[in-house]
Amino acid sequence: MFSFSVVARSGAARAGLLATPHGRVETPAFMPVGTAGAVKAMTRAQIEEVGAQILLANTYHLMLRPGDELVAELGGLHGFTGWKGPFLTDSGGYQVFSLSALRRVDDDGVSFRSHLDGTAHRLTPERSIEIQQNLGADVAMAFDECPPAAATREEVAAATERTARWARRSREAHRRKDQWLFGIVQGGTHLDLRERSVADVTALDFPGHAIGGLAVGETKDDTWRVVDHVAPMLPEEKPRYLMGVGTPEDLLDGVARGVDLFDCVLPTRNARNGQLFTSAGRLSIRNARYRADPRPPDPACSCFTCRTATRAYLRHLHLANEMTAATLMTLHNLAYYLDTLRAVRQNTLLGRFEEFRAEVLGVLAASEAEEEGGASGP
Questions:
Q1: Same domain, 250 and 361
Q2: How far apart are CA 303 and CA 280, in angstroms?
Q3: 90, 138, 200, 260: which one is catalytic?
Q4: pLDDT tens for residues 12-70?
Q5: In the annotation, is 263 catalytic?
Q6: Phi, psi of 150 (to 5 degrees)
């Protein structure tokens, strides 16, 4: 039911194929984030229209509401949501450490209070795997501890050691044959701790690996210093997933370092805040220059939004707080992300990824200065 193969390389960039029980994923791929089983502001038909291949759902949030047992009773995530393609679920570890102000970590797991209603909960590696098996995603993640960027070296070292122990327990608890379980590499920005984590996690022979603990407040230089060091140490024949890292520049820079899978809330969150990603760079729809602009958001894009809506109309909807604005702009942003990675894959197959990357990065850099010059206003 599962397989992964690298079909072409262009430098360190890889074009691959991930086969799952619910369909194939051509990599490199971006996974839209469906935290509670839905991508915010989007219908399933719209997600299909923009060409999403795989969605990410959140263990922590679905555990709290509606509950993983209910999702299991209704056919797992696929039966519950109606999405027919692959799902990946995270382990819940990041949300426990980022959303719960009241938590207690010990070697067995984490006790915490729900950010929704303050009720007490407990997550262990075994419970995280139980939830993810109930959710029934194609790919599940081992339970890990994700330390914040401000953590001391001692705290990161302790979290790294705990992640290794929890990875082993996650592996032992996992039973579903129709679900792959990926390991997660931690270690903060400390390269020696990252090396230790890679050794511990890869020794467990997971079918895929994630680089976690980035995009949590560290600098971009530190992010890529870590990925530069870690990615070549991961097994060449297995998929590599960079968790939570996701500006358009990040996608290109990650692919350049051999990453296959990405997820991030940025395209959906920024859409709700009025920022569009286009082939000419970023566009802030609040800028007064778009008040009477009859052009589509991106004349080079063929998504539903660009075929049917003008910049002036989107600006009006956004400033009027119409929910349609979030839908139209989210649809476009996801189309841009997915189209960009399809172009990345095509250029990797053609052996010209670095040329393509340089072209796109040049456009993005030039657009930053231009967009900052437009004033916002009614």
A1: no
A2: 15
A3: 90
A4: 999 999 999 999 999 999 999 999 999 999 999 999 999 999 999 999 999 999 999 99
A5: yes
A6: -85, 0
